[in-house]
């Protein structure tokens, strides 16, 4: 019985070819060019000033003073942040405002120093009566290195990958060796496909980002594959599935679990897009590429791993039938010889 779902799995040579092309091309481009890593070193221009009565509405004026100084010195910032300063374990506001501008790492120190002097001199506010308001301020220029980010990303990637391996072992114990082998093949495809895609498309990623996204792909795949495995375990106990071949049984079971897999993958994608939409510019660059990992995990869980599982189930069913026949043959021989059969 050739259903639409079974027909989709019969195109497995195409899926293997697509994965092979992406992975091999990714390996070649990575060897030649590496990933398109974002340089995370940068410089900040920070102004901290106290907010007193009559000064609370001067935020736009404070920004104009800084930005006029940048323009006068030929400086262009990448992003800015404005937030109240907090301190202490309770994160209580101190009454100061923080105005932070982020510049590229190669920005001229001399130009930043001139802008700092200009802001320090001109950071003066007056009230409606023309009286100068007292304001305490601190203007600093800092160089920020990204090593801490690299280390954090690396540790996160390792932690997520370990979690995926644990889930893989659980799959083998809970749903059988065939499901674990299929899961391992699918997880490997999802992670390598993700890395290859980033190497080919040259999407900007942070230094340890590709490893993090590959680990996310591994975990996302295992989550989606578990949904398939749970349905297959229940469905294969149904006597109605006994009339199907291994390929047909897998395809029929996938039809009952596909909607849950698609819904879960869609939910993961929406979460990634939502977080990216509300995140700061720097965090957005880290979050949004994770959508690639989710897409790769869906492709692997819906198309790549299922055809591997068809082969695994077919082989395990053959081994099982061979053992049954061997046992039946021995039992029949002993019965014919008049020997008592041993269980």
What does this structure look like?
The protein is 66% helix and 13% strand. It has 343 residues and is an alpha+beta fold. A hairpin with a 4-residue loop joins β2 and β3. It is elongated and about 115 Å long.
Short description:
This protein has helices spanning 4-9, 12-33, 59-72, 109-122, 147-175, 177-201, 209-235, 246-278, 281-287, 290-337; strands spanning 42-50, 79-87, 92-104, 125-126, 132-133, 137-144. By secondary structure, it is α+β, with helices and mostly antiparallel strands.
Secondary structure tally: strands: 6
Q: SSE order in H/E notation?
A: HHEHEEHEEEHHHHHH
Measured as a percent range, the helix fraction is 55-70%
Over all CA atoms, what is the radius of gyration?
30 Å
Residue fraction in strands: 5-15%
Q: What is the general shape?
A: elongated
- Helix-and-strand structural type: alpha+beta
Strand order of the largest sheet: 2-3-1-6
Sheet with most strands: 4 strands, antiparallel
Q: Termini, distance in Å?
A: 37 Å
Question: Could you state the oligomeric state of the chains shown?
Answer: single chain
State the low-pLDDT regions, or none: none
């Amino acid at each position: 019985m050739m259903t639409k779902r079974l027909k989709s799995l019969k195109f497995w040579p195409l899926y293997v070819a697509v994965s092979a092309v992406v992975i091999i091309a990714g390996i070649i481009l990575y060897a030649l060019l590496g990933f398109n890593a974002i340089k995370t070193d940068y410089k900040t221009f920070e102004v901290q000033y106290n907010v007193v009565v009559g000064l609370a509405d001067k935020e736009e004026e404070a920004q104009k003073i800084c930005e006029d100084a940048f323009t006068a010195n030929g400086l262009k910032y990448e992003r800015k942040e404005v937030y109240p300063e907090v301190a202490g374990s309770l994160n209580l506001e101190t009454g100061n405002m923080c105005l932070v501008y982020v510049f590229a790492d190669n920005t001229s120190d001399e130009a930043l120093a001139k802008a700092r002097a200009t802001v320090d001199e001109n950071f003066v506010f007056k009230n409606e009566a023309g009286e100068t308001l007292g304001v305490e301020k601190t203007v600093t220029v800092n160089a920020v290195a990204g090593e801490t980010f690299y280390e954090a990303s690396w540790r996160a990637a390792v932690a997520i990958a370990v979690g995926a391996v644990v889930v893989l072992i659980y799959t083998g114990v809970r749903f059988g060796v065939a499901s674990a082998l299929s899961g391992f093949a699918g997880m490997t495809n999802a992670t390598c496909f993700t890395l290859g895609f980033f190497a080919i498309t040259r999407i900007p990623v942070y230094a340890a980002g590709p490893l993090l996204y590959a680990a996310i792909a591994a975990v996302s795949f295992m989550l989606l594959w578990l949904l398939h495995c749970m349905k297959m375990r229940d469905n294969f106990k149904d006597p109605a599935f006994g009339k199907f071949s291994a390929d047909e049984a897998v395809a029929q079971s996938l039809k009952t679990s596909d909607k849950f897999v698609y819904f879960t993958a869609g939910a993961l994608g929406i979460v990634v897009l939502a977080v990216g939409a509300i995140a700061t510019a720097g965090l957005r660059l880290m979050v949004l590429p994770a959508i690639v990992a989710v897409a790769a995990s869906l492709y692997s869980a819906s198309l790549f791993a299922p055809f591997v599982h068809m082969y695994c189930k077919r082989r395990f069913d053959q081994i099982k039938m061979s053992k049954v026949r061997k046992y039946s043959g021995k039992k029949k021989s002993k019965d014919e010889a008049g020997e008592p059969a041993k269980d």
